[in-house]
Amino acid sequence: MPHTPARLLAAATLASLVVTGCGGSSRPAKELPPASFVAMQEGPGEEYVIGPLDQLTVFVWRNPELGAKVQVRPDGRITTPLITDMPAVGKTPSMLAEDIRLQLSQYIEDPLVSVIVDGFSGTFSQQIRVVGATEKPASIPYRANMTVLDAMIAVGGLSEYASGNSARLIRFDKAAGKQQEYKLRLGDLLKKGDSKANVMLAPGDVIIIPESMF
After folding, report:
1. What's the whole-model pTM score?
2. Cα 160 to Cα 2, 72, 133, 209, distances in angstroms
3. Which of 40, 46, 47, 60 is deepest in the core (most CB within 10 A)?
4. How far apart are the C-alpha atoms of 137 and 207, rounded to whole Å?
């Protein structure tokens, strides 16, 4: 067929981009330090940031009629009694509670406001995204002390044709102000039980798993 070479070249180019994490760099990826299969000590993660579609409870002490159970709209705002279109996405619950308090202080004296997150979706910067050759690619809400093993369990592991040891982790390095790429050995982790292949995840990480070329 006359178009076969072009199709093969396009497929090879796409595979190359996936393997390099879409960064266009041919430098070998770095490896992250291993994490334990079983955490020896749990610790809190970064303070939670409200995301679109989160379920919130707004509580106003001694003024229950001013509170509400609300879902953050896709545009990132909420509406409660006396307050219309309050921006919520990107704020911590305490920050949102303070903003609501300032608005309500126009109507009542010294309001005490609490915001409780009942259902978590989080912002994209707090999700772990797993794409490529896995059973069910997904965005997963980040949890404190989460490892790549936890993420792979959540997406059902590798697909039949996955090249697990060619997987890459893409992470934004806040200190350096740029994207970093790390090598993952998912085949060794999931098929051989190599504990040294398990690494800690950070909010916003993207795991890319290519298919085997053979």
Report:
1. 0.70
2. 31, 38, 8, 12
3. 60
4. 10
